[in-house]
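Reading a protein record of the kind used here takes only a little practice. To see the layout at work, look at the sequence and tokens printed below.
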Amino acid sequence: MSVDLICLDADDTLWHNMRHFDATEAALLALLRPFAAADVARDKLNACEARNLKLYGYGAKGFTLSMIETALELGGNDLPAKVVTEILEAGRALLAHPVELFDGIEETLDQLARRGRLVLVTKGDLLHQEAKLAASGLGDRFSGIEIVSDKTAETFRRLFARYDVRPQRVVMAGDSMRSDILPALEAGAWAAFIPQALVWHHERADALDVHQRFRQLASLAELPGWIDAID
């Protein structure tokens, strides 16, 4: 069965992302050292992010608000206004970081485009994701851009219907087992997992058992070969 649609995640699949969040988190923990040990502050931040996802969604803006909330919870009335100012500056820097593509991404996308329509499927803040895509220079390579609030099986089913394609003829590739792989498989598509060294705690999921429509790859460069094997 041939593949008609190739869906690709953006952050940490096409370009580096998590390392910028990781550096920003480290800066926050240093700012909060007078109020809490690093592991305590990190746990508080993780809990705050999880609690706020339904309100703020994914992305740097929601992360910045969660950092401020974490600082206020730990510092209370003793928290200097300067700390809040520095957190806001860190959040602005996170929104403005340069887009750094993984090696060979353009060549890989050109190879994939010869095998099916390319659709970018990413979640997060609309303005920030659009800005990163524009800065990447990759936008013209995609037949469609889907910036969604979350990735669920229903998200993928709606996407397949919008592009008028059967799920058995779709491949989804990304770095998140929770967001890219499991919901795509549930919706009936093929899924290629490309893990990265840094993983956001909210995206962690148990390893997947053997599945006919699943493959773990070392890099996106291996995806064209796997698609050829599917075909």
Remarks:
- The chain has two domains: 5-15+100-230, 18-96.
- The first helix runs from residue 18 to 31.
